[in-house]
Design a protein that fits this description.
The protein has 435 residues and is mainly α. The chain contains 23 helices and seven strands. It has helices spanning 11-18, 29-42, 55-65, 83-91, 113-117, 130-140, 142-145, 149-162, 166-178, 184-196, 200-213, 218-230, 234-247, 255-264, 269-279, 286-305, 309-322, 327-339, 343-353, 360-374, 377-390, 395-407, 412-425; strands spanning 22-25, 49-50, 69-73, 75-76, 79-80, 99-104, 122-125. A hairpin with a 2-residue loop joins strand 4 and strand 5.
């Protein structure tokens, strides 16, 4: 259902849009046309549009022309549309006077977290219809058309903070809190400004009191988790993060931090759930993929150690699939499988999941390590010397050979001879000393 700007009930909305300029950075002409027509129907003058072709041009136009309404594709070549949001906020600090929307192919639930985590007003998911964009604009900007006095004061205070007038911003937020029965939003911004001003104790106190008013207020929970992380209070951070995940969709960008946190608190099973969320993300970050892969490797190791063999193997295989051939991860997976005597699966990890990104030298070292565990001392020495001659000349090869000699109760002179050879090859390295 389209917006009826001739309806007198919508006059305040048309008035809001009529004073605005708009910028649309979207590569598909049909999409640009639909967005433009919709904004014109809401009241934007047809001559007040900027249509840049590149990210750099869009940034320059925001700086010079200061368009209030932005529609921008989330990925533009190697740039991210969301990266222009902070720039837009600095350009127009009072967000009651503007709107910022991302256009995205990603229709996973986690994309909605962008609105919760930032000053973005909404995400327009591709492909979209006229009805969808009408609903997005109408709903996302509703509080801006005619804000109540409380919201107006909060937004004005936020603008002062962006401009650097922190004390004035805090005082105005306190006034706003006094005029509202449940001033969760204004209290949150007061606490945030206190924390940013190095008054962490007062900030934490206000945030904790906020949770008594609304125990699942997103911004309050996020700020507390951030504070606890800074203070290395990992148990508190984990508890708050768990409450967030119980009530809100996981933002994939948080996965690296959450993975570390789960490991620090030995909550390895959480990592499996993060991997499920990540698997639904359309545009997958290689950095996050690597974090999940490494986290699943630790999760798998924990599970096989605690006799949850099937679950552990499942985590290990998923880790391998996400590893992109990273040898450090594959090495951990192979070690975990050898711990439970599953040599066949360990070999399958090596054969199926190494690729052009795998460090060939370290792969040969890993293969030699496995060979040494399964072979007699003479065969291990023969294989090790062949590798050294072939160019796989590493400290690890020497260490594996020395360890094999020591465990094999070989004559002391033979071991010392090999250690001396290793020291000549790597004089800076620390090799074992025999009594």
């Amino acid at each position: 259902m389209s917006f009826d700007k001739s309806n007198k009930k919508n006059k305040h909305i048309v008035d809001w849009f009529s004073s605005k300029t708009a910028l649309i950075l979207e590569p598909v002409a049909m999409n640009r046309t639909t967005i433009k027509k919709t904004l014109i129907n809401f009241g934007v003058n047809k001559d007040k549009f900027f249509i840049p072709e590149t990210y750099i041009e869009a940034k320059e136009l925001i700086d010079l022309q200061k368009p209030e309404i932005i529609f921008i594709r989330d990925i533009i070549d190697n740039d991210k549309g969301i990266d222009l949001l902070d720039f837009h906020v600095k350009t127009i600090p009072n967000r009651l006077n503007c709107g910022f929307f991302l256009i995205s192919n990603d229709n996973s639930p986690s994309i909605s977290c962008i609105v919760l985590d930032t000053e973005a007003d909404g995400v327009l998911t591709l492909p979209f219809t006229g009805t969808a964009i009408n609903k997005l604009i109408g709903g996302s900007l509703a509080k801006k058309y005619s804000p109540n006095p409380y919201i107006r004061m909060v937004e004005e205070a936020k603008a002062k903070a962006v401009e650097g007038d922190i004390n004035s911003a805090i005082e105005q937020l306190k006034v706003a809190s006094d005029m509202n029965k449940t001033p969760v939003l204004s209290n949150y911004y007061i606490a945030k400004l206190y924390i940013e001003s190095s008054n962490e104790a007062e900030g934490e106190k206000i945030l904790s009191e906020n949770l008594e008013l609304n125990y699942k207020h997103y911004k309050t929970l996020k700020e507390l988790a951030k504070l606890y992380k800074k203070q290395s209070r990992f148990k508190d951070q984990y508890d708050i993060s768990s409450l967030l995940l119980e009530n809100y969709t996981l933002n994939p960008e948080q996965i690296p931090d959450l993975t570390k946190l789960s490991i620090q608190n030995e909550k390895y099973e959480d990592i499996w759930n993060y991997s499920k969320v990540f698997s639904k993300v359309k545009t997958q970050s290689s950095k996050i993929r690597q974090f999940i892969s490494a986290g699943l490797a630790i999760c798998g190791r924990f599970m096989v150690k605690t006799n949850r063999i099937d679950e552990g193997k499942k985590a290990i295989v998923k880790s391998a699939k996400l590893s992109n051939g990273k040898i450090e991860i594959l090495k951990n997976l192979v070690h975990s499988l050898h711990q439970i005597g599953d040599k066949e699966s360990a070999q399958k990890i090596i054969s199926d999941y190494t690729n052009d990104n795998t460090d060939e030298t370290q792969l040969e070292v890993l293969k030699f390590e496995i060979f040494a565990k399964e072979s007699l001392t003479p065969q291990t020495l023969e294989k090790g010397r062949a590798l050294l001659k072939s160019g796989v000349n590493t400290i690890e090869i020497y260490n594996i050979m020395i360890e094999k000699l020591v465990k094999g109760n070989v004559k002391k002179d033979t071991i010392i001879e090999l250690i001396d050879e290793a020291k000549k090859a790597y004089p800076e390295a620390n090799f074992p000393e025999l009594d």
